[in-house]
Amino acid sequence: MSAVPVAPGRRTADPVLEIRNLSVDYGYDEIPVHVLRQASLTLNRGEVLGLAGESGCGKSTLAYAATRLLPPPGLITGGQVLFHGRDGGSADILAMSDAELRASRWQDLAIVFQGAMNSLNPVFRVGRQIADAIRAHRPSVSQKEALERAADLLDMVGISPDRLRAYPHQLSGGMRQRVMIAMALALDPQVLIMDEPTTALDVVMQRQIVEQIAELRDRLGFSVIFITHDVSLLIEIADRIAIMYAGEIVEDATAQDVYRRPRHPYSNGLLHSFPPLRGPRRELGGIPGSPPDLARLPSGCPFRARCAFVFDACAHVQPELVAPDVPGDDPRRTVACLRHDPARVEAAGFTPVPVPPELALR
């Protein structure tokens, strides 16, 4: 399935990647750890979808499982990952043969890993590594043509083409990360998954990388899943943000809705964990406690031990993603909080409670 980029700057409601009820376990014994539980996401063409949450919440596991790069002892136990080509055809990545998967990688879907130094081979020049990736998928391309393409790619990400002969250790951290972005874009993929690409970089280089990604997305029209624990970074680059907690998606909304009108208590806590860039000064609230042990998850809502808005039903009823119980809200946004799901609370025999003002902003 070949990739044909969306027209520059064009974003549509046409899905290019659908992750449906994806579940992952770690361990092969009688009591595996359920690290991802029926996670679902939809990425539209030309869109940047941010995936945020604390360390250990399952963000990278979701990305590696969706691309079938999950190392042992990780085991995909259920779900589908549907890739929709521009020709109208669809394929489940989890059901592809090894040959189909090799053909799809880098051409349909590419990934930029968190550690650029660990992703690049230290004994080969970066130009050769990019050229080898191109020729592995397009054998008819000569070595000279592949190197010319590699030079164009480096120039596109802001690196002088004369660095083609550099080894990875001769480049700065930001340059190595740009090389990985160039390699990921070598075959014009429709989807680019970026796993915390700015974590090890200083704030100046973070800004440059984020601006580079935004400019390339607008120019080439690919879609992006941008994974990070930094919600403030996503607010600047993402069209939509999905918040993860304890292996589940707990909120999915536009970036501006998450920033200005968070509906889940965890999203609200994340937003009060970094200082505002403008407006009056306020005290940082943070989130008390620590994420739960995934091997011993509590009953009911996994966030209840740290939640400021907990009530009796939270200890017994498992929340599900629903449209928030706030009049006038975007019908496409979803949140997994019992405060916004009175019907589920009543069905379980408990009394619903009002949505607090902090979670009902308009």
UniProtKB/TrEMBL annotation:
One of its GO terms (biological process) is peptide transport. Residues 19-271 form the ABC transporter domain. PROSITE patterns: ABC_TRANSPORTER_1 (PS00211), ABC_TRANSPORTER_2 (PS50893). Pfam families: ABC_tran (PF00005), oligo_HPY (PF08352). One of its GO terms (cellular component) is plasma membrane. Belongs to the ABC transporter superfamily. CDD domains: ABC_NikE_OppD_transporters. Its main location: membrane. GO terms for molecular function: ATP binding; ATP hydrolysis activity. It comes from the Bacteria. It is found in: Cell membrane. SMART domains: AAA. The keyword Disulfide bond does not apply. This is Dipeptide/oligopeptide/nickel ABC transporter ATP-binding protein. It is a peripheral membrane protein. It comes from Cellulomonas algicola. The keyword Iron does not apply. Keywords: ATP-binding, Cell membrane, Membrane, Nucleotide-binding, Transport.
